[in-house]
Design a protein that fits this description.
alpha/beta, Rossmann fold, binds 5'-O-[(S)-ethoxy(hydroxy)phosphoryl]adenosine, seven-stranded mixed sheet, ligase, AMP binding, GMP Synthetase, Chain A, domain 3, about 675 residues, ACAS_N, eight-stranded mixed sheet, acetate-CoA ligase activity
Amino acid sequence: MSSSTVINNSSTTAWDQSSLPEKIQTFDEYKSLYALSTENPDRFWTLAAQRLDWYQFPTKIKNTEFDYRTERGVEIKWFEDGVLNVCYNCLDRHIAKDPSVGEQVAIIFETDKLTEKRHHITYAELLRDVKRFANVLKNHGVKKGDRVTIYMPMIVDTCVALLACARIGAIHSVVFGGFSSHSVAERISDCESTIVITSDFGVRGGKCTPLKGKIDVALTMEQCKSVKTVLVFQRNHGLSATEDDCAEQRSSLLWVDGRDYWVHDELEKVDDKCDPEPMNAEDPLFILYTSGSTGKPKGILHTTGGYLTYVSLTFKYVFAYTPGEVYMCTADVGWITGHSYVIYGPLSNRATTVVFEGIPTYPDVSRFWNIVDKHQINIFYTAPTAIRSLMAHDDSFVTRTSRKSLRILGTVGEPINPEAWKWYHTIVGDSRCTIVDTWWQTETGGFMITPIPNVWELEGGSATLPFFGIQTQLFNKETRQPLQPPNTGELCIRDSWPGQARSLYRNHERFVDVYFRPYPGYYFSGDGCEIKANGYHWITGRVDDVLVISGHNIGTAEVESALVQHAGVSEAAVVGYPDPKKNQGMYCFVTLKDGVEESDALQKDLIKTVREIIGAHVFPDIIHFAPNLPKTRSGKIMRRILRKIVEPDVHNLGDISTLNDPSVVDELIKKCPRSH
Ligand code: WTA
């Protein structure tokens, strides 16, 4: 029985109300709404869409096709004749309904250094800043449909930049600030941005790191010739020289006249009048690049109406949010979690959202919990990797703080192991707070499998049950046949939900190939999952060539192509292995060119090369010099065998008779530090 069968078979009363409830309070309520969402998605999502303000409310709700074999092919449209503006829904409408909301705090800015002056930004202030910055964009020729690359640290200006794009209908493409010049250049050129928004520096863990400098390098690359304008926020604008750690470095900034502009200068030239652009529900809102199993990063494309309807509803129900509560998500806006659950989900629900610039271990490992007390945070959402790194320290770093304000704790990004779950629950949450372990992806836009607080029992390590509208289905990887739970298989989703990506930017073919060709008629997640007899879902991790390391997705193909750019390398194969702290570790088999000597120095140099080419957050853990790799007779590297060697699970290598030279395997096992 699949979880949906469990749900559908139970006695449910039909949902006959004219609106959705404020909160989901009972399992029966969940069941009747779940039944409505799968049996009559048009009705359910009409009710959900009514939570937003539309210039024109849609009459067409769901119009989707998942089967590539049909004449139409894969196509996803929601609310297609609806007209709305995302920024209006996140800001203006709250104040329009109740002018006093202008005084409510929209963003609490928690700086790395604690000396910053501006901590609390009200809805009225945020709206004014967004309008003014939107006018700066307009002055620089940005129009509806233009792509804007945003390369910023975690500061309030970053939120302003995204919302300003949404206001005027420009498509933002945020690139995480840790990515290298090369990676930014690749992402700028793929979507042909003509403008880049950046900041001179970012400050994290007491260190000042250049961002504009990396853009300068990216823009020297041939593929970035489309960029005409760089708008630069000054990170410490308004601070005195003594408070400003970056003052000295700023003096050596490169400046290209006619291309580079300080935002604070440009803001002097604009007023704060800027009407939101009415957007069709299916107009693109943003592109966000994510790693794929092969080749270039994928430009995941999200649109306007379905995305906002979905992130808004999931935020509301999964955090059981009531305006007035303080919510904090520790994700960077460079990732989907930052888009959906630092900015769009919270603000569309009139939440107070915390923007955190720093890191969990600076100035010490009590940082998160001190912030919780300082701002009286009620809902706290982070990644298992952060939890695991903090639980390695003495519990007193947590227990010396109060944390009484906390009501809900959330996790995302990778499977949370039961020990970490337990520590989060008992030590951080004093066994009092509900934990929501939310499974979802860049591609899904919002939460897919997740508890709804206090509506059903939790099991530490399980994301539990599907959200409204989400029908899960497992498949057997070998037979390609559907599996009935209880079972373990590849996780797919039957039928569309409004928050899902519509395509890859200008590459619909690859979109279909990656997500819809593996199991015709289904969305393929790329994750493995076990569904137990009670319908609870346990995600087992990626089943493709994407690694999830400390919550970051890294395509092994990207690392391989970085390694072979090193002059000494002829070939590379990268696989993951289980790591208790980081979820996975990165193991690189490297074949050197003839005459190149193996050495520790070369290992270090290879690690450096990968970090320079992709980004400092990508770190090979083990470099294994291998004169030979296991290959089929046609020359294809058998990564399946490499994975088994490093896992290590050398007694289950499977059939190696198809290898060109089976003796290679023994050689590799002998030299592998993990096999012994
Ligand atoms: C993994 C992040 C287990 C999964 C929102 C997925 C998880 C990938 C969970 C997407 C979870 C995310 N339990 N695994 N609660 N949440 N994952 O695109 O492998 O950065 O496919 O989106 O992270 O990562 P992405």
